Amino acid sequence: MEKLHKRAISILLAGVFFNLSVGVLYSWSVLKLALQDMQGWTAKQAGTPYTLCIIMFSVGAFIGGRLQDKYGPRWVVTTGGILVGLGLLFSGFFSTSPAGVLVGFGILTGLGIGLGYSSVTPPAFKWFHASKKGFVSGFIVGGFGFGAVFYAPLTGVLLNNFNIAQTFLILGAGVLIISTTIAQLVTNPPAGYVALEPKKVKKVKSKEQQPTVPIDHTWKEMIQTKQFYFMITLFLFLSSAGMMIIGNITRIASLQAGMTSTTILVSFLALMNFGGRFMGGALSDKIGRINMLFVIIILQAINMSLFRFYTHEISIAIGIILAGTSYGAILGTFPALTADQFGLKYYGFNFGIVYMFWGLSAVLAPLLADYFFDIHGNFEIIYNLCAGSMVVMGVVNYFFKRLTEQSIKK
User: Fold this and answer.
1) Averaged over 166-192, what is the pLDDT?
2) Which of 36, 140, 169, 333 has its CA at 20 to 30 Å from residue 229's CA atom?
3) pTM for the model
4) Distance CA 128, CA 143 (A)
5) pLDDT for 70-117, tens place per residue?
6) Range in 105-114, 123-132, 328-337, 363-372 with the lowest mean pLDDT
7) Rounded Cα–Cα distance for residues 92 and 167 (Å)
8) Given a cut of 60, is residue 284 above it in pLDDT?
9) Which superfamily does CATH assign the domain made up of 210-409 to?
10) What is the pLDDT of residue 80?
11) How far apart, in whole angstroms, are the C-alpha atoms of residue 297 and residue 390?
């Protein structure tokens, strides 16, 4: 059993590095500019593959969660890595065709990311003690978030030395080899495995950390609970507030602070996003998931209320720290929250359903931000909407907490 306990670390690291290897979604901001500048694509032609990739990411997470629940994670993760690599290779072979890149990056790569992303966290949960769910989820999804720090500059270097087609092909070959190799390490623990209990398990005073529902819910049972609807509402609106800022940070910095060199802001935001995923997940182990959501809501409400006043580089940096860490903490907390509420047996498919609402926010939030910016020429309406929605989400989270505590008493 001791050898198995040591193996848990390798499973965790495999999840982190697999997510990092398929984090090519974050290279698109660089590729988009190259397609426009070097091949004369319109902004719409260059932006559509990314939007479709986000949609297919969510669809892939939905499908992958179900498949790994039934057949185990290894082959689903492997298939995900293959599709990501093939999608990039396909884009390379048809890089001059908007339709070709749409199929390659938008459909194949997006679907592959979703399949893999949704299938590395469930087995890791099973290898670790229940008190570590937040740490595990935050660490693994943090690997994907770190892709922004890694892939954006790598893609820039490749484009400085190769053309767009060659860049797609190099990225595709690398992802195909690395991700599928790492995927072979991802597996569920054997029957009868008991996770090692930490020497000091801090008992959280929050009642919501205690089991609140029968341990394992099927997706049909899950969608019949009130908890599910509170969760997807919170996930949708909390993610949307973060996405509106993250997707427009370079334009905000240029408009409000007159910053012309904004590339470093993207990397800085990515670091904050990565840190927020890890810290948010780990902190939720200590203070409780729903209490962690209160922290996120308060931080976002304050930040959104003040964002219009960020007119200098330092204040923009403060806004990025708060926005990036808050958004990251959302993604680090919700996987563990889903496991707390609905159990691990059907977790993959259940979280795939919940994750669809992140995909919805990733598509709708930037569109809404662009709509108001085109009308008013600034983001003040967006800041007001985000701050107001956080107040409403605070009320929603309060009732979610009460519902959870009432379920415990039953």
Assistant:
1) 95
2) 140
3) 0.87
4) 18
5) 899 999 999 999 999 999 999 999 999 999 999 999 999 999 999 999
6) 363-372
7) 7
8) yes
9) MFS general substrate transporter like domains (1.20.1250.20)
10) 97
11) 6
Angle among Cα 80, 272, 374 to the nearest 5 degrees reads 85
User: Over the range 367-401, which residues count as b (16 or more CB within 10 Å of their CB) and which as e?
Assistant: ebbeebbeeeeebeebbebbbebbeebeebbeebb
Residue 262 — very low, low, confident or very high, per pLDDT cuts 50/70/90?
low
Query: Is-contact 12 127, C-beta < 8 A?
Result: yes
CB half-sphere exposure, 408, CA atoms < 13 A: 14
Residue 198 or 310, more confident: 310
Q: Is the pLDDT of residue 237 over 90?
A: yes
Write down the CATH superfamily of domain 2-183: MFS general substrate transporter like domains (1.20.1250.20)
The pLDDT score that the predictor gives to residue 145 is 86
Picking from 392, 185, 408, the residue whose alpha carbon sits closest to that of residue 301 is 392
Predicted pLDDT of residue 406: 83
The pLDDT score that the predictor gives to residue 166 is: 96
SS (H, E, C) the chain: CHHHHHHHHHHHHHHHHHHHHCHHHHHHHHHHHHHHHHHCCCHHHHHHHHHHHHHHHHHHHHHHHHHHHHHCHHHHHHHHHHHHHHHHHHHHHCCCCHHHHHHHHHHHHHHHHHHHHHHHHHHHHHHCCHHHHHHHHHHHHHHHHCHHHHHHHHHHHHHHHCCHHHHHHHHHHHHHHHHHHHHCCCCCCCCCCCCCCCCCCCCCCCHHHCCCCCCCCCHHHHCCCHHHHHHHHHHHHHHHHHHHHHCCHHHHHHHHHCCCCCHHHHHHHHHHHHHHHHHHHHHHHHHCHHHHHHHHHHHHHHHHHHHHHCCCHHHHHHHHHHHHHHHHHHHHHHHHHHHHHHCCCCHHHHHHHHHHHHHHHHHHHHHHHHHHHHHHCCCHHHHHHHHHHHHHHHHHHHHHHHHHHHHHHC
pLDDT at position 201 is 55
**Which amino acid, 297?**
I
Is residue 127 within 8 A of residue 3, CB to CB? The reply is no
Cα separation, 8 vs 1, in Å, equals 11
Query: How large a percentage of the chain has pLDDT more than 70?
Result: 94
Query: Hey, where are the domains in the chain?
Result: 2-183, 210-409
